[in-house]
């Protein structure tokens, strides 16, 4: 007989999620360009809504009724087909937990959101990563990796950490190639950063297919990451599955109020998108000038850029120098990208600082 409770072996093998760094090793604070937070903060309407207008001694609405109605109105979705969660992470976990377990496979592109492997391991499922093509997710390699044991396919679109985006035709082709009993989860955490007119068709698939869920979050463009609010939509039986597994009072009262206020200010989101895209274009243009030193920026539809170091300057040296300049960015050896840094788009001045550091390093290595 064991002397203490014994962990399930697949849980014991898990390494906890590692958040973006915010301090140096000696405790000095860093400007955090490692967590894809919104440098503009949030809408003033959110701050007004959070200014002591709720009573924390009462439980929140367990069904987030008003928030689901507002999301439904904004996206043309029946609120009954929407479920809210503690960030989209809770709902991603529920989706995998509902449909995968020991002996099953959870499939996603090789370079994807670092939470995805944990979702599979938590339920004892096997992680399968489809090969990327020049870092980008690829529908052909995803479909080639499907087996009779595949239960869930996770697709972050735009992708994190690469920043690439699959268009509607490719998402539809992926869905059409999957068996009907495989759940496709389209994780659109960064969708609000897409230019007008770009749409991967995920919402339409979720509206008509029995095996598609779409996930969204308020953490990125809306700027309320600290309130932990996300949502999902799909067929009624899929939403029912998530409701069975999510926390009973999962979205706090303040989170619901903040998300409602954020939805009421679409102009803030447009401004955040436009500022992000302008700063990102300038940053990429500046770093492209360093291409002869082996520094390459991958095209991004999100609020970060993956910078790949393919010359004499390596990612570890760049990381250390950027840290000395007061900034935290994301090094990704644990995701198979030791040669890359994911850099969140901050203010124009912050991006100029990062550019200056990398330019100095490149000139010194020449």
From TrEMBL:
Pfam families: Aminotran_1_2
Domain Aminotransferase class I/classII large: 29-354
CDD domains with a match to the protein in the record: AAT_like
GO MF terms held by the record: histidinol-phosphate transaminase activity; pyridoxal phosphate binding
An individual GO BP term: L-histidine biosynthetic process
Positions where N6-(pyridoxal phosphate)lysine occurs in the chain: 220
Pathway per the UniProt entry: Amino-acid biosynthesis; L-histidine biosynthesis; L-histidine from 5-phospho-alpha-D-ribose 1-diphosphate: step 7/9
Enzyme Commission code(s) on record: 2.6.1.9
Matching InterPro entries: Aminotrans_II_pyridoxalP_BS, Aminotransferase_I/II_large, HisP_aminotrans, HistidinolP_aminotransfase, PyrdxlP-dep_Trfase, PyrdxlP-dep_Trfase_major, PyrdxlP-dep_Trfase_small
Coiled-coil portions: none
Keyword entries, A-Z: Amino-acid biosynthesis, Aminotransferase, Histidine biosynthesis, Pyridoxal phosphate, Transferase
Cofactor: pyridoxal 5'-phosphate
Catalytic activity: L-histidinol phosphate + 2-oxoglutarate = 3-(imidazol-4-yl)-2-oxopropyl phosphate + L-glutamate
Highest taxon, organism lineage: Bacteria
Family the UniProt entry places it in: Belongs to the class-II pyridoxal-phosphate-dependent aminotransferase family. Histidinol-phosphate aminotransferase subfamily.
Assembly and oligomerization: Homodimer.
Protein name in UniProt: Histidinol-phosphate aminotransferase
Organism expressing this protein natively: Qipengyuania soli
């Amino acid at each position: 007989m064991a002397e203490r409770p014994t962990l399930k072996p697949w849980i014991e093998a898990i390494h906890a999620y590692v958040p973006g760094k915010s301090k140096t090793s000696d405790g000095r604070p860093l400007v955090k360009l490692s967590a894809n937070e919104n440098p503009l903060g949030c809408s003033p309407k959110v701050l007004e809504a959070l200014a002591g207008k709720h009573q924390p001694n009462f439980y929140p609405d367990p069904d987030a009724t008003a928030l689901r109605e507002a999301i439904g109105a904004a996206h043309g979705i029946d609120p009954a087909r929407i479920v809210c969660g503690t960030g989209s992470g809770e709902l991603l976990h529920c989706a995998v937990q509902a449909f995968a377990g020991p002996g099953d496979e959870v499939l996603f592109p090789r370079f994807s959101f670092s939470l995805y492997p944990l979702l599979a391991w938590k339920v004892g499922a096997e992680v399968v990563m489809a090969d990327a093509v020049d870092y980008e997710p690829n529908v052909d390699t995803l479909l080639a990796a499907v087996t009779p044991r595949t239960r869930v396919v996770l697709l972050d679109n735009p992708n994190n950490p690469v920043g690439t985006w699959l268009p509607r035709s490719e998402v539809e082709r992926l869905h059409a190639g999957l068996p009907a009993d495989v759940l496709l989860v389209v994780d659109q955490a960064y969708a609000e950063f897409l230019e007008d007119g770009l749409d991967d068709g995920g919402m339409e698939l979720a509206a008509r297919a029995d095996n598609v869920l779409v996930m969204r979050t308020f953490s990125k463009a809306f700027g309320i990451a600290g309130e932990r609010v996300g949502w999902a939509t799909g067929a009624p039986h899929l939403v029912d599955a998530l409701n069975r597994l999510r926390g009973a009072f999962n979205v706090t009262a303040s989170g619901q109020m903040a998300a409602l206020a954020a939805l009421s200010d679409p102009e803030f989101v447009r401004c955040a998108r436009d500022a992000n895209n302008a700063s990102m274009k300038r940053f990429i243009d500046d770093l492209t000038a360093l291409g002869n030193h082996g520094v390459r920026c991958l095209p991004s539809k999100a609020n970060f850029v993956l910078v790949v170091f393919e010359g004499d300057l390596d990612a570890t040296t760049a990381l250390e120098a950027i840290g000395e300049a007061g900034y935290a960015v994301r090094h990704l050896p644990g995701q198979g990208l030791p040669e890359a840094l994911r850099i969140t788009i901050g203010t124009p001045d912050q991006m100029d600082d990062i550019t200056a550091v990398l330019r100095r390093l490149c000139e010194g290595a020449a």
